[in-house]
């Protein structure tokens, strides 16, 4: 029986990939099936665990990671080595947790899914090394609930690794004990925020926690905990095998950030999918690799890394897709998975759709997010219907300003504000077309004062 499955598509065949140039995807099979333990070990998988455990101290591992400067691929870009060096550890301190963030609910993002479904042993090997460096006794993979195929692959890999002695007591005869469990989420975007993830894992409501204390000081069940993204972690074995200089040089002249990046493209392009390329690859190269836009479509704008990043223009296609360069252009690298928007797509509808998602996913703790996002959605719906009133666009700008960095407990609201503010900045005329122009005898409704429109048209 043929089983039709959706697969994240990687667009390099096996003969184009080498471990030294494609440390994340070299392991993958061309047929997209999951790489089992036998195949992984035959490709020298788990060799780095044997090389490091008992032969290098945790501090030495962290120094290598710091020198490599693997910047967090969950979107924040914080150095994994620095994060690990800040984790509380020591003889008189409790051993903690290594938490892998595999929630991947960022709109338009599908990169971790590839690694989770097709090479779960690479993640397990990375977590064993991360657990060793951070003195963790247990690891959790917090997986997006809808990733059913990934859940199957990971569960099988954990069983295989346990049976082969890569998990459990005295791993590879080193005296280091570490095990991993899979935890599937129940479908909330906010669970991807690291402290909300910890609350959810503990069985509590998934609100973010106030920081400090940071998870590295007091995280899951009050123990020091490290939270890292799937892609970030999957870089660790190759860095420990080939060294920090090799990692830095992978990006060549393209970027000050080292390594490769799992970039992806979706939208009205000929070929959606994923590519592992040097960090700092320009977006224009990705558009070329995607075969350009659909026939009859012209690129209008693009998001560099998911729904919570700011729109950029075709003139930005030459910029290096790395953390600093994209930030200087007024957006964020985010997940590095591009969403390309064609000229026949309405910016008002697109942003309304995104803001509906962010409004629904707010945990409700802070006012600008809980009340501001539904209010923005109401205004956007009115503009979409051509029933906006003068002042609505300015009000949307004010709401985006109020949701900016530092005004809420977590980065959810600032992330929601970015596409809204940048869409208005670049495509104001489209928003203005949503303002009704009444006849001289018509009475304009008053601007609503709150999200539930207490003053003004209840429908708005
Ligand atoms: C609303 C929200 C959702 C997030 N979702 C994810 C996610 O799905 N996966 C992820 O790795 N990081 C996500 N993050 C970032 C995490 O809070 C955290 O920074 C990250 O997991 C740290 O790993 P890294 O340093 O390896 O990037 C999210 C942040 C916010 C504010
Ligand atoms: S910004 Fe939004 S999601 Fe984040 S804590 Fe505040 S209400 Fe919750």
Which architecture name of the largest domain does CATH use?
Answer: 3-Layer(aba) Sandwich
**Oligomer designation:** single chain
Question: Would you list the SSEs in sequence order as H and E?
Answer: HHHHEHHEHEHEHHHEEHEHEHHHHH
Radius of gyration: 23 Å
> How many distinct folded domains?
3
User: What is the topology, as strand order, of the major beta sheet?
Assistant: 3-2-1-4
Choose one word for the global shape.
globular
Give the percentage of residues in beta strands: 5-15%
Mean pLDDT: 94
CATH superfamily annotation of the largest domain: NADH-ubiquinone oxidoreductase 51kDa subunit
CATH fold type of the largest domain: Rossmann fold
Q: Major sheet: size, sense and barrel closure?
A: 4 strands, parallel
What does it look like?
With 460 residues, the chain is an alpha/beta fold. It has three domains: 14-248, Rossmann fold (3-Layer(aba) Sandwich), CATH 3.40.50; 250-342, Roll (Ubiquitin-like (UB roll)), CATH 3.10.20.600; 347-432, NADH-ubiquinone oxidoreductase 51kDa subunit, iron-sulphur binding domain (de novo design (two linked rop proteins), Up-down Bundle), CATH 1.20.1440.230. Helices cover 37% and strands 11% of the residues. It contains 18 helices and eight strands. It has a four-stranded parallel sheet with strand order 3-2-1-4, with helices on both faces. Helix 7 links the parallel strand 2 (136-143) and strand 3. Helix 14 packs antiparallel against helix 18. The longest helix is centred in the C-terminal third of the chain and has 21 residues, at 412-432. The protein is globular, with a radius of gyration of 23 Å. Residues 453-460 have low confidence and may be disordered. Bound molecules: flavin mononucleotide and iron/sulfur cluster. Flavin mononucleotide (FMN) is lined by residues 72-76, 78, 80, 101, 103-106, 189-190, 192-194, 227-229, 232, 410-412. InterPro entries: NADH-UbQ_OxRdtase_51kDa_CS, Nuo51_FMN-bd, Nuo51_FMN-bd_sf, Nuop51_4Fe4S-bd, Nuop51_4Fe4S-bd_sf, Soluble_ligand-bd. Keywords: 4Fe-4S, Iron, Iron-sulfur, Metal-binding.
């Amino acid at each position: 029986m043929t089983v039709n499955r959706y697969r994240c598509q990687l667009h390099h065949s096996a003969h184009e990939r080498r471990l030294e140039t494609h440390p994340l995807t070299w392991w993958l099979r061309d047929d997209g099936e999951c790489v089992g333990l036998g195949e992984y070990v035959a490709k020298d998988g788990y060799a780095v665990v044997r090389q490091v455990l008992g032969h290098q101290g945790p501090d030495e591992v962290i120094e290598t990671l710091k020198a490599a400067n693997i910047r967090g691929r969950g979107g924040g870009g914080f150095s994994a080595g620095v994060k690990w060096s800040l984790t509380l550890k020591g003889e008189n301190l409790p051993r903690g947790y290594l938490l892998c963030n595999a929630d991947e609910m960022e709109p338009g993002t599908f990169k971790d899914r590839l690694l989770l479904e097709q090479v779960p042993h690479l993640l397990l090997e990375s977590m064993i090394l991360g657990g060793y460096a951070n003195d963790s006794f247990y690891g959790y993979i917090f997986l997006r609930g809808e990733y059913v195929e990934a859940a199957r692959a990971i569960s099988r890999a954990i069983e295989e690794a346990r049976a082969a002695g890569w998990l459990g007591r005295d791993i590879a005869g080193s005296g280091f004990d570490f095990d991993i469990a899979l935890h599937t989420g129940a479908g909330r975007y906010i669970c991807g925020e690291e402290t909300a993830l910890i609350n959810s894992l503990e069985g509590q409501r998934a609100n973010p926690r106030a920081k400090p204390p940071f998870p590295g000081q007091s995280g899951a069940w009050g123990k020091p905990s490290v939270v890292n993204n799937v892609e970030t972690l999957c870089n660790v074995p190759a860095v420990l095998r080939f060294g920090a200089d090799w990692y830095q040089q992978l990006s060549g002249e393209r970027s000050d950030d080292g390594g490769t990046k799992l970039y992806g493209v979706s939208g009205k392009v000929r070929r959606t999918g994923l590519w592992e390329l040097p960090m700092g690859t320009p977006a224009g190269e990705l558009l070329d690799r995607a075969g350009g836009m659909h026939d009859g479509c012209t690129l209008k704008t693009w998001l560099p890394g998911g729904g919570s990043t700011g729109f950029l223009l075709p003139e930005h296609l030459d910029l290096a897709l790395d953390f600093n360069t994209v930030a200087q252009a007024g957006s964020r690298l985010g997940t590095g998975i591009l969403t390309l928007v064609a000229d026949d797509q309405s910016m008002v509808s697109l942003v309304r759709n995104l803001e509906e998602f962010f409004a629904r996913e707010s945990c409700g703790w802070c006012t600008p997010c809980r009340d501001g996002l539904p209010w923005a959605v109401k205004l956007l719906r009115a503009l979409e219907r051509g029933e906006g009133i003068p002042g609505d666009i300015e009000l949307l700008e004010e709401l985006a300003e109020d949701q900016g960095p530092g005004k809420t407990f977590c980065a959810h609201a600032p992330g929601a504000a970015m596409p809204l503010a940048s869409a208005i900045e670049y495509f104001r005329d489209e928003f203005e077309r949503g303002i009704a122009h009444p006849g001289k005898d018509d009475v304009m409704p008053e601007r609503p004062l709150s999200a539930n429109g207490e003053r003004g048209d209840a429908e708005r």
